[in-house]
Amino acid sequence: MAQFLNAKDSLVTEAIDGVLAASGGMLKRLDGYPHIKVVYRADWDKSKVALISGGGSGHEPAHAGFVGRGMLTAAVCGDVFASPSVEAVLAGILAVTGDAGCLLIVKNYTGDRLNFGLAAERARALGRRVEMVVVDDDIALPDLPQARGVAGTLFVHKIAGAAAEAGDALADVAAKASDVISAVRSIGMSLDTCTVPGSAKENRIKPGMAELGLGIHGEAGVEQVAFDSARSAMTTVLKKLSGDDAKSRIVLLNSLGSTTPLEMSVLAYELATSGAGFDHIVGPAPLMTSLDMHGFSVSTLPARPDWVAAMQAPVDLAAWPAMQAINKVETSALPDGLTPIKPIPSDSPETRATIEGICDLLIESEGSLNELDAKSGDGDTGSTLAGAARALKGAMDRMPLADLTQLFPALGNELSQTMGGSSGVILAIYFGAAGDACASGMTIPEALRAGLDRVSEVGGAVRGDRTMIDALEPALDALPNGIGAAAKAARAGADATAKIGTAKAGRAAYVPEENLLGHNDPGAEAIARVFEGLVHNIG
Fold it and tell me: Known catalytic residues?
């Protein structure tokens, strides 16, 4: 798998320097590359308790991304998924620890515990005051003697960081961190494993399945479960997290790497509407990732007043999203003039059957039209048309089916609301103009042609530009000779687009010639299929 990196050996050091270069001077590092990789606050004066965390790289923005006022003082970075050495941790301790002492916040992995623990002992022998806490928030494997530390560690960073920033003594900061550790709980789910640079990817998660409880280093989870939606995924995760006595909780919603912001927002919706007693949320955001893992994790903490206050304390960190209250979604009425005019419904069995037949055809064509569009565009033509078709079928009882002068603009209005992209507005213009022409006394073929003329006038596309017009115009020209002639003309026009290497309108205009030749324009193909379907339905 291709990745944006230069060399495996320099990956982590170049990434750290990229973070520092973009930090606005807020961060600096020790001059110890390649073995000592310590990032710390540029403004640190050692007057307060220092907080140090870290571990293997690959979890960005953790941990260097959370170095700043109100959270970590320093982060000690290892290579990808590898604990930093004792010498690296000791260097970090010595660099930032003053008379107030320092607290090491360590995730519960053997390498981290050993290296941070031995470094703490050596620092104490050198006269430094050092305490260490170990985070074990992962509930995925309840029978494991020592649970793993995962994204719930960030609650410890934030609450202990607020205490240290407020000037609390080392013992008090450590006690508050331990208090949080005893209450935080986390679990993750993923649709895919991660890609470790320089290593072959392990494809152990089967299609249609999700892995529950996998670790942040790609370790196998507790089980693979059937996956069908964000809702079922979030329900499964929250069921595992249930069981504490808290009536209100803070939740941290974390992307494990490659889960898109759109997906994370859907997961946030499912979480917010779950009724699971969440009052505050951190995220959704990538906070403690696992390289490019396509998954998410949820961490929860009881919403104790002191913990809520600590979570609300300000920090100077771009990577840390401020905690927000979870509120009911508020809406307001559409501005005057935008509320759709509702037509007077009327029925025509023949018209209803024709429209529903077209809708069914477009729904059935969703996959093949998407596949065709992927060769020359963004692969969504089928989904756009199928979504509009489903919505239109659901609106049939509201349509003036017996009055074409009213039906055409009603169709345009419906499609403008339910069809995304440029397709919706194009069809709104088309059917609006056709309705006006029909009302003025034109025949149906003439009215439909008037709609096409209006689309070309407004949109600028003409026959030969490799758009749906290449099928629609010849079909309408042939329509006075019957629907069969129109269908043949539409098919010939659609097939001709495969020979047009330069599109002059639509998204295909940005696509190279080699991607276009040999493939029908998806919009023209859809038009051809509609006319062919009409032949089948009405002869």
Answer: 217
